[in-house]
Design goal:
By secondary structure, the protein is mainly alpha-helical. The protein contains five helices and no strands.
Length: 102
């Protein structure tokens, strides 16, 4: 995803700003579940949390997964990649290019 954001940010010359969102959302993905767990443990009795409360967090995570999949479905490939596709310049074994020297 980082390369996709970078390629789309080249035209606006805000590459750092665009890619900084990736770092921010990673932090949110770590902190928000902790806050959610602490909040549910405070709002529910221990037995309630153990029996079904933790499932609420799993449901929220599943919802986030579905929303992310829908968003990714509607994001188009970068213009550079679309150009490579049209020209047929895709390598058959791309990992071999990483170890080739010019």
């Amino acid at each position: 995803m980082s390369s996709l954001i970078t390629e789309f940010s080249i035209k606006t010359r805000k590459i750092g700003y665009g890619t900084s969102w990736i770092q921010s959302t990673t932090l949110f993905g770590i902190v928000l579940p902790i806050i959610g767990t602490l909040a549910l443990r405070e709002l529910m009795l221990p037995d309630m949390f153990i029996s079904y409360g933790w499932r609420v967090l799993i449901g929220v995570g599943a919802l986030a997964l579905i929303i992310g999949a829908i968003v990714r479905h509607y994001i188009f490939e970068s213009p550079q990649f679309q150009k490579i596709l049209k020209e047929g310049q895709i390598a058959k074994v791309p990992v071999s290019l990483a170890f080739k020297s010019d």
